[in-house]
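Study this one:
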Amino acid sequence: MNAVSGAVTSWNPGPYYVAGPSYSYALAVDGPHVYVSGLFDFLGGGRRIRVGVVDATTGKAVDWDPHAGYDVQAFAVCGNKVYAGGDLWAIGGYPVNGFAAIFDPVRPVRRARAVDVAGAGVPTSMVLAQSDPNPARGGTSIRFALPTAAPVTLTVYDLQGRCIASLLDREPQSAGVHDVRLSTSSWPAGCYLYRLQAGGEVVTRKMVVLR
């Protein structure tokens, strides 16, 4: 939109989500670039999932992609870092717990990486991500990350407290990121709780199943 006249311009990065309507959570402007997060698979004519950068003049995607794990709901650009917050379980290939600082904004994909993460792919605390997709229809994935190896129990309950699925039962898991696939095709529509127990910690999150 023209800042003086208010007239709509041709600038349109066109976020597009293949499974339904797309929308944006946050924008941050840094000189000639606009950082965008939201529910989309494509941005500015390029394949970008949930996070991307577009040229402020053309609206075309810039060759930078931090590979965000789930939603980024806030941005702040400071120097050579982009600070991202939201329902994040990973960024730049490393586990995080809701907040991350990313080196090298507006650089090629191979350069985007998280900072201040202890170890390659090993978080400093246990992380349980939001199931993806959520809401789910036929199935979803539950991702979690462990700071150290530990026996893991991962269980799903309905809102009445009944156990619906036992995905892991004190099974030894290594430090790092893990992904458990869950079929929900036979489940009634509704809200469910999934609980992760490992190393003396317990984390519970909510998921939704649609029909």
Remarks:
- The radius of gyration is 19 Å.
- The chain is about 0% helix and 50% strand.
- The chain has a mean pLDDT of 82.
